[in-house]
Fold:
Amino acid sequence: MVVDAAACYRERFARLRCCSREGFLGRRDRRDDMTAGGHTLPMVQSGFHLAAREAPQSWRELRRRRSSPPVRMPVARAQTFQSALEQAEQQFRAAASVGYDSRPLNLFYGLSQAGRAVAAAASRLGPDDWALAGHGILARRLDTSADIGQVAIVTSSGRVGTSFHRLSTVLDSEIPDCTLGDVWACIYESSAFEPLDSAEIFVPLEVSAAVPAINSGQANWHAGASSANVILPKALGSTPMLTVHDYLAHYPALRGWDTVERQPSAAVWPEEGQPLTLYWEAIAEQGMKGLDGRRVRYRGQTYLAMPTIGRALKPVHPLMAWWAVLFGLSMLARYQPDRWTAMINIDQNPKAIAIEFLLDEALAAVPELIDQAIDAVS
Structure:
């Protein structure tokens, strides 16, 4: 099965998934946040959120960096690093104080400024490469898309030195031309707790270490083999048109996986709530740095395998998924304010709650990811 075949089972999967309000990871505890006047009133925190940072903690860590940048850099580069982080923090503080009508504008431009700090800290960017110019990403169909998920995100026309393309290179991320819904599905909080679309299929997968259940009598596995537990979308197990083997082909970091019986093509969807244990022979681990080479740390102690979009060869980096989504929402709010107001109207649009949820989550998620990205590139 190839990527384009996914459309064949989207409709059926949507019917399966709508039966579960919990979404893919029904084992999590959650309740919807309540909002008043655009301000979040949290009612309960999941285990994931309890392990993740709150926004003030992330901004404190980012402020701590400013007096001691992570790498040696010329004065002008250090000043950009410091000033960009200050502007990013101010934008996010402003975003927290306004309603959903305007919040995307502050969030995106805060992230955009933080991107300049990430580029300034990137050790692989030379003196002629670190300064960013232009967005490098476009949003189309803003005035014609009835469904927010069908807004077009265009990345193919951006120049190499633009913010989106330069940071995608530094973070080893690839987002081809796609829809807003495609990249929205790559945001972990949304896919796990409040999906925009019940037909989301290729989403971030939780990957955790597993104790290898291997002995000399099991398919001749050798010492040094590694293993991991992966949480798969539970509703897909009832979709016979998509095999586990075909599904995991969209996760490059998991390449070379096998089953304990050494029959990956015959792997079956696990029972609901049960992980699928994957194995890698020791030789397949060369260059992967073990399990941590196969997953990306998200917030707190959550580790993910990120999917590809469309025909991309590289997976989406979590920060760039947020970048593309917040850019699309900011363009709607800025250039189509009447349509944006209608999209966030909870009395008329059933997807408005998912939009609100994402804009609330961004306040804490994005600063933590910015801090992690600075560590990753420096």
In short: The two ends are 39 Å apart (CA to CA). DSSP finds twelve helices and ten strands in the chain.
